[in-house]
Specification:
Layout lengths: L1 E2 L8 E7 L7 H17 L2 E7 L4 H10 L4 H11 L3 E9 L2 E2 L1 H8 L10 E8 L7 H12 L3 E2 L4 E4 L10 H19 L8 H10 L2 H6 L1
Parallel strand pairs: 2-3, 2-4, 4-6, 6-7, 6-8
Antiparallel strand pairs: 1-3, 4-5
Helix pairs in contact: 1-6, 2-4, 3-7
Length: 211
């Protein structure tokens, strides 16, 4: 997903992390809406989606061995090298999903320091909306990210209209505007460059085993 001026390098890079477990999923739908709204607010922006479902086995292997494979290494680089992150999870047992948490567990310490983050969650009922404040916001606070004031929750009833209800769309636009303002107020991406070089130098887990 890209929104930038033809012939020019994008001014900003946004990573969207979606932890939906079904295909298609409301989690991915919300993630795409947040990414599109942020790109529209920023202009000349590249948005790259990291879908965690296909990476589930690689994430588990990385937790057990400490070494991500090449595909997971690329996903980590996308997130740590972005100017901002949009992170969306389904709700399980009144919290974020295990897959969502496991992905952020394998990031190096400091990988998200100072990174603007917009958090979102989906569930069958609005009763779970507090997960944004009691689980997601503390998680990214611990990772030293800068979480925008507006978090976005979508319950099943929010998808009655095409592209979401009016209330959901307004909240998406407000959160995207807050994220865009944070991105524009800080230097361009570069925080993750050294991390990316360190990971690339290590090679994939398969390469390490082969050697």
């Amino acid at each position: 997903m890209t929104l930038h001026v033809a012939g020019r390098e994008p001014s900003h890079r946004i990573a969207v992390v979606s932890a939906g477990l079904s295909d298609p999923s409301s989690t991915r739908l919300l993630a795409d809406l947040l990414g599109s709204a942020t790109a529209a607010a920023l202009g000349n922006t590249e948005v790259e989606v990291v879908e965690l479902r296909p990476l589930a086995h690689a994430i588990t292997d990385a937790l057990l061995t400490g070494f991500p494979n090449s595909e997971l290494t690329q996903a980590i680089g996308t997130v740590t090298g972005a100017d901002a992150v949009i992170a969306v999870t389904p709700v399980f047992s009144a919290s974020y999903s295990g897959l969502f948490k496991s992905f952020f567990d394998i990031l190096e310490n400091g990988a998200l320091d100072g990174t603007p983050v917009l958090v979102g969650a989906t569930a069958g009922t609005a009763r779970h909306s507090l997960v944004l404040e009691h689980a997601l916001r503390p998680l990214f606070g611990y990772l030293h990210a800068v979480v925008v004031p507006t978090a976005v929750f979508a319950a099943s009833e929010d998808w009655g209209a095409s592209g979401g209800s009016d209330a959901l769309r307004r909240r998406i636009d407000r959160a995207a505007g807050e994220l865009a303002a944070l991105v524009e107020s800080r230097p361009a991406a570069g925080r993750g460059d050294q991390f990316d070089r360190d990971i690339a130098a290590m090679g994939s887990f398969e390469d390490l085993l082969g050697s």
